[in-house]
Amino acid sequence: MNNYEVLNSKIMRSSDLPLYWIDPLKVEADLNVLKIEGKKITVQDLLFYPEGGGQESDQGELLYNDQVIAEVLHVEKSSSEAILEVKWKDRKVIPEPPFPVKAKIQPDRRKALMRSHTSQHLVSAIFEKHGYETKRAEIHPDEFLVELDKDFPSEDLSSIIEEANLTVVNGKKVVSKFITKEEAMKFKARTPLKKAEERIFRVVEIEDTDVSFCGGTHTSSTSEIGTILLTNHGKRFFRFVVGHKASEMLNKLTHYLLLASKQVATSPNQALETLLRTYATLKDENRNMNQRIQSFIREVVAKSQESFIEIVNGKPVLVIMALPIAKKQMGKIMDELKKSETFIISTSDNILIIESKHYEFAESIFEKLKKALTAKGGGAKGRYTLKLEEQLDRSKIISILD
Ligand SMILES: [Zn+2]
Fold this sequence. Notes:
Blueprint: E1 4-6, H1 19-22, E2 28-37, E3 40-43, E4 60-64, E5 67-78, E6 81-88, E7 99-105, H2 107-129, E8 134-140, E9 143-148, H3 157-169, E10 174-180, H4 181-186, E11 200-206, E12 210-213, E13 228-233, E14 237-242, H5 243-266, H6 268-281, H7 287-303, E15 307-312, E16 315-323, H8 331-337, E17 343-347, E18 351-355, H9 359-373, E19 376-380, E20 383-387, H10 394-401
Parallel strand pairs: 1-10, 16-17
Antiparallel strand pairs: 2-3, 2-7, 3-6, 4-5, 4-7, 5-6, 8-9, 9-14, 10-11, 11-12, 13-14, 15-16, 17-18, 18-20, 19-20
Helix pairs in contact: 2-3, 5-6, 5-7, 6-7
The chain binds zinc ion (ZN).
The site of zinc ion has 6 residues, from helix 2.
């Protein structure tokens, strides 16, 4: 199916257009090699998408007489030619340029870039509808980032994501149109007209959703995207994964959370380990997901046989004894706990950690314990550690804190 239209026949023949514009699913072609300089090969034909407009370039390989001669690692555009940065496999078998090579693009990577690029248009269009302009976008395989012009209220994020995913399942058509500069000047699009020197302008339309000037590769329907999942955000930055990467991450997270919820009742420490794995899965932390994990951690800690709450100067202090986790693994858990609790943890390597968002309170507990235990340690701003000679027991810690 053609998912492009040439609106003005006097501009061009379709053979004037880059192959990645006409048919983004075409991943093989014969290319004419014009020049070779070290690891750079200049080819006449625009099959490989060159890095630009925030989108990463294609990768792939070059074959000569059915033999792979080079891996294509990166692509740049230079006027109407493409410069391929390669890793040579066999340079001896090729003649002096010009000569033809067969080029193959990594199809999975191409499709993953098409999915994330289309998703980015979709998400940017929805933000725009709510009055937030996209200042910058990054397109990686099945992953993209959007930077807005102003702070977006995080409580409205879930409705944006839901709207984007609804557009995905509704399978809206994505069509490219090619127009002249004169036509482009009059065109109403979400993105500004940038390259005034260009002869041909390309407009990418998502049915009922978005119209923008763009030179990237896109799917022909939003349904090809699969799923859009938010994985991290600040006030203006939003990072998403899509397609297979999104469903894989969701499945993994659901698996871990279900597993942890079963483990909580019988073996809280194991549940804690499972949750640490969940953290590792989310390389970029999703705040919404973190809140769920945070409540699980609380549950784990609360059900641990080794933990109790001690009232010190009228304030509750959570004491977790001999947690079988090394201090270096504790950072995440403590970050979560300290948001609302004052707590003391003795780790299995005999480190006593005192944390509270009430700095003075934490310091008073620290001083009390340090003196009573004649232990070495220090800290500041609500976080203190003590190195103990041996494990502390519950009655000892209560007697000191009372
Ligand atoms: Zn685009």
